[in-house]
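[job 0417] fold request received: Transcriptional regulator, TetR family
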Amino acid sequence: MAQLRELKKQQTRRSITHAATALFMERGFEATTIAEVAEVAGVSKMTVTNYFPRKEDLFFDMHEEVVTGPARAVAARRVGESALDAVRRDYLAAVERHDPLLGWTQPGFTRLIDDSPVLRARLRELFDHQEQALSVVIAAGAGEEPDAFVPRHAAAQLGTVLRLLFTEAQRRVRRGACEEEVFAALDATAREAFGRLEPSLAGYAVRTSQVEVEVEVGHGDEDGDGVGDEDS
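[job 0417] inference complete; emitting structure tokens
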């Protein structure tokens, strides 16, 4: 029974995001209302807001992966790997599989972000949360307090590279680069950018054993997970 309920929640979530994406592409983000998304998805307005408390997250529907991905990579790093090694390896793997989350690389998505101050503000928030999540995990791995300067500084350096790579992907999309060109450029740029962090981060937060202090990687943000939605 619980499995069926979870499956239905996933289907409802997909229906909502597909409806929202189609409407955003057709009408623009600002001109689309939650009520219109609900109507097209065949659910109530309350259900939409239960899954996505903020309209922006209908657009950034994979926001939790953006926020927690690098921190999870650090938490799962191999023995002998530093935080830098883990984030770099995770990013380059995402480039290899052409992960669209590295820059919302479809031209239509880039255009919607450019046209919406709300979406641009939300994107800045997501990167702030990403950096905060990184800081917590790096601090734990280095045996330091979560609010200590050094792990926050390390997270800020890594976070800055990730932000700049995202904007670089969008810049190339705006200029008409195809998917292959965008990801080839990201691969080269990421290798250079992360390489420039070697002097300060190569030996920091290196995992020395299989056993390390475990830290729950949260998303640093509200989670619209459909709890209690009336159409379930």
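[job 0417] notes: DSSP finds eleven helices and no strands in the chain. Residues 222-232 have pLDDT under 50 and may be disordered.
[job 0417] exit 0
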